[in-house]
Every structure is written in structure tokens, then in C-alpha cells.
Design goal:
Blueprint lengths: L5 H8 L4 H14 L1 E5 L17 E3 L7 E3 L6 E4 L8 E4 L6 E5 L10 E10 L2 H4 L5 E10 L2 E8 L7 E6 L2 H4 L16 E4 L10 E10 L8 E6 L2 E6 L13 E6 L3 E9 L5 H9 L7
Helix pairs in contact: 1-2
Length: about 280
């Protein structure tokens, strides 16, 4: 028997039907949107906490901001999106495109949230050798207070969610990455992920109890096409200056990206399923 969410239970007690219950969940999703870049004709975000502009930097360290002109290999792909247009990464580039980290809704205490995005590529054929991070969110580095989704460098490529607390928190002895046992790496790994050059794949990852002030354990979860792929409980401490953090897109990525969304809450499995099955416009 399928479990009902609290919203549905309350709806049934009030005499609402299942369709009304579903609409209530969608409404809750819409209200939780902090940031939304649909990539329809522009890289400007439709919903944002800051200016919502896609910026370009000279490199991943972002020491020099070059403005809002994207590299020549990063363009809007007309009519090729999961819904409408999409953002195309045609080749690897040394420059980096990013949205400001303030769009993540960082909280120094009891931080929860979710990120949703659609990707279209064959990682084993389309990507050049090396690691590829379609999304990396951090102030400092990939292993120091960061979230990322990536394809590893070995064929066939695994898909991974990395949830790295402050480096001194999760790796106090500063052990080299290659020397860390796989079980000690703060990641969720998916073997043979369902990505394809012919179909869009929905990626959603969630987190809760980051920087918890109580005894609740932090948790991160990964979903692909609405299906739960794994859970990880990282160390709790994420120390960011949101003004210096960034949502970097397409690091070594070659493929299409659409409908990037950041939510202010951890989405439930039912809400992730709703997001997978319905366009964001239906949630508003």
C-alpha cells in the first residue's frame, strides 16, 4: 500500500480527492523554488535570489570574472530542451560559467535544500577523457564544502553525487584522495546510470540537517528519473560565504542541460517524482 504524504492525509480528512491532493503537493513545490534557469531563449534565471545572471570566469578558481558573455561553445539550443530551449555545451573550455552562490539559500544552521536538472548526453561517447562535473557548487574547492554531480573518468563511467563538508571536518588528516578507501569517500555512486544521447535524464539531489543545531544527522539523497539511487550521511559542517560561492555549470561537460532549479527544502520522494513527471510551469 502506497504511503500518503502529510499533505494528502490532511486533504483526505478535509474531504479532498487525490487530484486535489496532488495539486497541493505541486503548489508546495512551487513555493519552495529559490532559483530557476529554464534556458528558454536566455541564460537569465526566471527566478533568483540575486541578479540571476550566468557569469563567465577565466578558470575554475574564478579569480577573474569576464562578464555575462558565455564562451563560444556554450550556447542556447533552440527547441532542443526537455521543455523549450536548452543550454548546450559543445566542447570542453578552460573558461567557467556560473551563477552566484547566493542562489543556493545557504544557511549557517539547519540547512536543507534540493537541486534539480535535466541532462542529455551519452557519457561514454560524448565526453572527453577525465572527470566531468555538470554541476559543482562550492566556495573553495571540489573537496572542501561542496556539492557536485559528476561522471568519473573510467569507462564505463559511473555517475556520482559528492557531498563534501569542510575539508577539516570530513578529512581531518588530509589523506590523499587516491589513498582514501572507497567506503570513506563522501559520495553516492551509481553504476551504469541511465544517461542517453537520445533521451533526457532527470537528476535531483537533496540534503537536510546540514549545520544542524540538534542531534539530527545530516543526510543527502540522489534520484535519477524519479528513482532513489542512494543515501549518504556526511559530516555536518559546511562553512560558506554565499557571496563567494558559485554554482558552476558544465565543467568538462559536453551535452545539453535544461531546467536548473534550486529549492529551499529537502524534496520528498513523491515530490521528486512529481518534478520528474511534470514541467515546472505546471507547478506554478
Amino acid at each position: 500500500m502506497k504511503k500518503l504524504s502529510l499533505v494528502c492525509v490532511l486533504g483526505l480528512l478535509l474531504g479532498l480527492n487525490h487530484d486535489t491532493c496532488g495539486l497541493a503537493q505541486e503548489s508546495s513545490l512551487a513555493k519552495a523554488i529559490l532559483f530557476h534557469a529554464p534556458f528558454d531563449g536566455t541564460t537569465q534565471a526566471a527566478t533568483s535570489q540575486g541578479e540571476g545572471k550566468l557569469l563567465t570566469a577565466d578558470a575554475i578558481e574564478r579569480n577573474k570574472i569576464l562578464g555575462t558573455d558565455t564562451p563560444s561553445d556554450v550556447t542556447i539550443a533552440k527547441g532542443e530542451g526537455r521543455y523549450g530551449d536548452a543550454l548546450r555545451f559543445a566542447a570542453k573550455t578552460s573558461q567557467v560559467v556560473f551563477y552566484e552562490g547566493i542562489e543556493c539559500g545557504y544557511q549557517p544552521h539547519n540547512w536543507s535544500g534540493s537541486v534539480s536538472v535535466w541532462l542529455k548526453l551519452d557519457p561514454n561517447k560524448d565526453l572527453e577523457p577525465g572527470y566531468c562535473d555538470p554541476i559543482q557548487i562550492t566556495e573553495r574547492a571540489w573537496n572542501d564544502g561542496a556539492f557536485f554531480i559528476d561522471f568519473d573518468k573510467f569507462l564505463p563511467r559511473d555517475f556520482r553525487l559528492g557531498v563534501f563538508a569542510d575539508l577539516k571536518s570530513w578529512n581531518p588528516q588530509d589523506i590523499a584522495w587516491d589513498d582514501l578507501p572507497v567506503a570513506d569517500r563522501p559520495m553516492i555512486v551509481v553504476k551504469q546510470p541511465p544517461f542517453s544521447a537520445d533521451q533526457w535524464t532527470h537528476v535531483c539531489f537533496t540534503w537536510k540537517h546540514i549545520n544542524a543545531t540538534d542531534k539530527n544527522a545530516p543526510q543527502a539523497d540522489l534520484y535519477l528519473n524519479g528513482k532513489h539511487q542512494g543515501t549518504y550521511s556526511p559530516p555536518a559542517q559546511f562553512t560558506w560565504d554565499p557571496q563567494k560561492a558559485a554554482i558552476m555549470l558544465g565543467l568538462n561537460y559536453i551535452g545539453l542541460m535544461d531546467d536548473l532549479i534550486v529549492f529551499s527544502q529537502e524534496l520528498t520522494a513523491d515530490q521528486v517524482s512529481q518534478l520528474y513527471q511534470h514541467p515546472v510551469s505546471d507547478l506554478k
